[in-house]
Amino acid sequence: METLMTAPAVIHHLQFASLPNGMRLHYASAGEPGKPLILFVHGFPEFWYAWERQLAEFGQTHFAVAPDLRGFNLSGKPAEVEAYRPKHVAEDLVQLIRTLGYSRCVIVAHDWGGAVCWNLAMQHPELVERLVIVNAPHPYLFARALTADPAQQAASAYMNWLRKPGSEQALAANDFALIEKMLSGGDGPRPAWFTDGVRSRYHAAWSAPGEDGSHSLTGSVNYYRATPMRPPTDSEPAADLSRFNPADAVVRVPTLVIWGEQDRALPKTLVEGLSDFVPDLRVERIPEGTHWVIHEQPERVNLLIRSALP
């Protein structure tokens, strides 16, 4: 497949959508409204700029939009933990798609964005023309692993730490040292993609306070506090799988899953059994990629995304 040899699309940000549910989402876009919509959905601890290379590429052929999820950067940051349950975040995206004037789109999502968009595709398959997921496990498979797989429980132990009061202050301490450690995969050097310019953008996003004066990271950390999915502890059991009907977790949308196989928190074993829940599935593995493969290999990721487009 040949790459497009045209100039990168111009990216416009500081755009806001006021949704019917009262949420105000900030988004960046590239390309012309009216062209097919492709929605890029970030995860933790990122924001719309995670998709800068994708907006520049796909804005050439599509109306490419990357919102800040609620709780992140310049979007609304509700105070209540309950407001960050995946169903509410998914509803933001449903309303954003419609507010932008579309009834169908392609969705590309990473990490927490993927968790939200798996749910969106289950509940609203009519809105999703194609689904592209990058290093984000299917919710049922993830819940099962958290319940029964000691290796996954150990890899996800950080989730229980993030749920604790004060985790946002700890993340922000020493000029966001702990968050930067997440991006580097531990004690390694700063990744090549996390340049000084990118770092300054991320620090600005991590510093944007809530409307009520709440800590800048409280909204994003509340995703972990709101989810029932977490490793079990002595005081809190894992999610009760008997409450979930696997038939309700089927995704009836053509789906591409891209997986960086060096992901320490979300190992490649989470892809096993995925075809049971996604009948129209293609999996592309990037053996040397980490959780941050969209940054490490943007051209390769873009080629894979383009290969999945209708």
TrEMBL record:
One of its GO terms (molecular function) is hydrolase activity. SUPFAM superfamilies: alpha/beta-Hydrolases. Keywords: Hydrolase. Pfam families: Abhydrolase_1 (PF00561). Residues 36-297 form the AB hydrolase-1 domain. This is Alpha/beta hydrolase. It comes from Cupriavidus pauculus.
